[in-house]
Amino acid sequence: MVKINSVDNIITNYFDLLPFKVMILDKNQNVVAANKNFNRTYGDWINKKCYEVCKDSKIPCLRCQVQKVLQTGTIEVVQDSSLDVNGKLNFDIVIFSPIKNTEGKIEFVQEISIPQREVYHWENDFNILFENTPNFITFVDRDLNILRSNKRMTNTFGNLRGKKCFEVFKKRKQICNHCPTLETFQDGLVHSSAQVGITSTGEKTHYIMTSAPANYDADGNVTKVMEIGIDITELNKLQEQLNFIHDFYGNLIENSSEGIIAVDRKGKLQIFNPAAEKIFSWTSRRKPGYAQVRKMLQPFFADFAENESTIEYIRTNVKNINDEDIPVQLKIFDIKTKSDIMGRVAIMTDLRPIIEVEENRQRAKELAFREKFASIGKDTQNILKSIKDFMGDLNEMMSKDKDYKLQRHWNEFYDKSSEYLQIMNLFIKYAQGYNPKVQLIDLNQLVEDEFRKYKITFSHSELKMDINLSQETPVISADIQTLKEAIYVVMLHYMTYIQENCAQIMFRTFFNNEKIYFEIEVKCKKISVPDFSEGLSLNIISMISDLNEIEIKTMQTNVDNSLKISLIFN
Fold first, then answer.
1. Is the overall model pTM greater than 0.70, yes or no?
2. End position of a domain, from candidates 396, 431, 466
3. Rounded-to-integer distance, Cα 63 and Cα 415, Å
4. What range does the domain containing 309 cover?
5. Measured between alpha carbons, how far is 416 from 410 in angstroms, rounded to an integer?
6. What is the pLDDT of residues 286-323, one digit of tens each?
């Protein structure tokens, strides 16, 4: 047995681990080494030639490639048969390869025998995988002729026989731009590129083409390339749909008349549309930061707790960058997935144009009303003046009459008529439109002055008048003349009632829930106090309260026959 660089080590560490039959032959075709699989199949081989061991023959085999490999140094592959130690015929794929010494000369030949059934099994598995893969697969030569293709390729692009790859994929007559296959032929590396092809039905198909070397010649040059195309047409359609949706909603947001602000869960501002820029007077090209957004939307954004999902539309004010109050209708909500919060959105409608339209409409209505009422009011005032003059003349005549009973009835009628005329004049005054002269007023001082005036008025009656002023100094902002006339209307409304029923009246000021109250309470011991829920008197008081932006409330109780009329100041 010849040793080749320690044949024992080779047998132990290499041959015996191979799952095939392996033997080493010298130039005379003597078996100089073999592995366990070879021993198990053919038995004793020492000092025998290969054909004696494998064929039980005295002459070399017709298909033997040992001498050819020794002469050319190439690797040869043949299909051959042999007889095992039991005389059973084996069919193998036999691979002959040269083994060179340290000087580079061929000294031995390695022969590997692989059972054909194993090779065919691998080939069958490869063919099944090749044909049923969902990708387009072709093998092409250096002239880009298609040598083989799978079912997916044929079904998609049609007949491939005798055609070049660019004719099949692109339906064109010249090589594609950025062809990965050409690059693989040039450098032997794997390349990929995105491509658009035309199917056999004329439809566009998008795919990623990857090319890889599949075979080399003796000089190491690539002779065949495998092309694998991954169909991304559906992905491309989905991307186009996503792009459309992105552009569609992007345009909606950009052109929305409502201000839209959105931040992601990390606090980074993602959306600040032109309507929001207009609301907040934002002129910089750079969008505001998260801290600025929180400041703009205080207190609503800061108070939006983690467990809240939405703040419904509320009418409120936000601050622009100039610290001005901007009236808006605001909604804040979280954008969520099934399990997570993606971000927070604020949507707001600028109410300034709406308020301006409402104010213009209201001014137009008031102007039209004033124009119509002015002519009516003027005529009414002239009529009232004529009645007053007539009543004055008649009163002078009646005062000379000696019938005291008639004179007493006449005086009562004259007083009531005069009161009604005064009420009518005040109603016309405010109905025509009155511009209040607002000033700061010490309410206690005003009420005390009015109390003294009316106490003198009722000094000859049995009426009891009381006053109870707040210990604190209530200062209000209002038109003082309108407030005096409001008190006058209330007192005039109850004038006859108070005189006839010996009632009690109380002027009172106090604070309640950070608001200032002026209250007039009327009481009677005998009959219920007349109602104050309708009529000219209430209309006048209501107009005065609207002018001064105050609230009016009335409360009547039957227990003590009392009525409270309250003017409430913020």
1. no
2. 431
3. 148
4. 256-350
5. 10
6. 888 777 777 777 655 554 455 556 677 778 888 888 88
